[in-house]
Amino acid sequence: MVVPSLRSALILLVLIAIVPLQAASVSKQQAETFSRKVALIQRQADATARPGTVRTALSEDELNSWFAYQALPLLPSGVTQPKITIVGEGRVMGQATVDLDAVAKTRSSGGTLDPWSYLGGRVPVNVVGVLHTRDGMGRFELQNADIAGVPVPKPLLQQLLSHYSRTDAHPAGVSLDDAFALPAKIRQIEVGQGQAVVIQ
Question: What pTM value is reported for the model?
Fold first, then answer.
């Protein structure tokens, strides 16, 4: 069972680090390995080790296997097929298929200059950026984004993120620019090539 704060962090990761994988190895076994590591991270949060001394490596293949086989109940309705590429030096790239019809209905003004008047259907959304983490806090620095290959400005991506990340507790959803607390007493996440190391 994923605790709510970790669930929120994973959903945020899907939404803001959403480039297709190349030669990735996705399997049920890797999904189970990822789940066991998440459970371990949660247990380590309750341990008495000195902060910053416990390290857990999560591979890109484990994460994408978990997305493929176990993440569906945790994803917002209308977001499917998330895939992440962990580039290194904090940089992540990813893709998810997103249903734009629901967003367009709530956002479109109907005007000819309103981009939501022209967007709809299930389309791939690609996002590239850098994940910065330190002292238990994280921040995502957006570098570029596109919808079905068409570059989109940050405000449009923010509307999409707000729509799919809103909850009863946070009706405005998640802001791209806001720093966020890392769950499970995570102090930092080192993003290397093909893997991320969680430091608690």
Answer: 0.80
